[in-house]
Design goal:
Blueprint lengths: L9 E4 L6 H31 L6 H29 L4 E3 H34 L4 H4 L2 H27 L8 E2 L6 H5 L7 H33 L5 H29 L11 H22 L2 H19 L1
């Protein structure tokens, strides 16, 4: 049954259904999280860019991931911070489409970058003699470009499907950003087919890249277990530990958002469940890669000591 056919030019973001005092607390908390996230990712990019010893595939992929994570946070958090203090929490129809496009595109790009980072570790550990040839500059550029193209192709497909639907009647999005599940439910036609197709695209993208990462680690572990020395084990594991932790966190939080069944009442929990995936993951990724990686920590100390020495001089 169709709803009242009134064209919607803007949406209202419901945000967090809490008291005004808690809104202020959340603003301060998320602002601090955003500042730390940006500083952490920028620190990683600057350190990798300045330190030539880190100009190897593993850290170049980490540089791209940090850049993508920074853009990903920029798409969601600043608007959410403004809405926490604003009385009118509106977003234009085009703005909502743009936010969803970049959110989905950058989220997909992050998944594919993590996938090629796993592939890089597979080549480094399982094919060490051929690694310099297999992972040359041309291959790195091709893999990075393919990750961005694939991520945004998925985003184009999903965003086009969702915003080609007619919207009328209710214009309140029960979320703090234009989440695809909450937006598609506002369509004034039967949206079930579109929702199934969009969910299928997301699930295929997530599960496909995750299964590829699992496959690479099966080969990695089989190679590590054949290493005779304990030192060799530890060195091999240390190169994979931070990446594996980020993969588990990233895909775990993503599964909570995209693989949940669409049963009645689930939309009410989407706001809280999306916080780890949209806000916490970009914060923890640079922390994990910095604290768990010896080379990054050494490079950070060198950069800090160099800047301190320059200030003293």
């Amino acid at each position: 049954m169709k709803k009242n056919q009134t064209f919607i030019s803007e949406f209202i973001l419901a945000g967090f259904s809490i008291s005004p005092d808690l809104q202020l607390f959340l603003f301060v908390f998320f602002l601090l999280v955003y500042i730390i996230t940006v500083m952490g990712n920028v620190l990683i990019m600057v350190v990798i860019g300045v330190d030539r010893t880190l100009h190897v595939p593993m850290y170049l992929f980490l540089f791209v991931l940090s850049f993508s994570e920074s853009c990903y946070s920029l798409v969601i958090i600043p608007k959410m911070l403004v809405d926490l203090l604003a009385k009118s929490k509106t977003i234009s129809f085009a703005g909502c489409a743009a936010q969803m496009f970049f959110f989905l595109g950058l989220g997909g790009t992050n998944c594919f970058i993590l996938t090629i980072m796993g592939f890089d570790r597979y080549l480094a550990i399982c094919k060490p003699l051929h690694y310099p040839v297999l992972m040359n500059t041309q291959v790195i550029l091709w893999l990075v470009a393919s990750s961005w193209v694939a991520g945004f192709l998925i985003s184009v497909a999903e965003t086009t499907l969702i915003f080609s639907l007619p919207y009328c009647g209710s214009k309140t999005i029960s979320h703090f950003f234009c989440h695809m599940r909450t937006v598609v439910r506002l369509a004034c036609t039967d949206e079930s087919t579109t929702e199934v197709v969009v969910s299928a695209i997301s699930i295929c993208g997530l599960s496909g890249s995750f299964l590829f990462i699992i496959l690479t680690y099966v080969f990695i572990l089989s190679t590590i277990f054949r290493i005779p020395s304990t030192d060799g084990w530890q060195k091999a594991f240390s190169t994979c530990a931070s990446h594996l932790m980020v993969v588990v966190m990233h895909y775990g939080f993503a599964a909570m958002v995209y693989l949940r069944p669409n049963t009645p009442g689930t939309l009410d929990n989407d706001t809280l469940i999306s916080i780890p995936y949209t806000i916490i993951t970009p914060l923890l990724s640079p922390v994990i890669f910095t604290l768990r990686n010896k080379e990054i920590k050494i490079a950070v100390r060198k950069a800090i000591s160099k800047n301190t020495h320059s200030l003293i001089m």
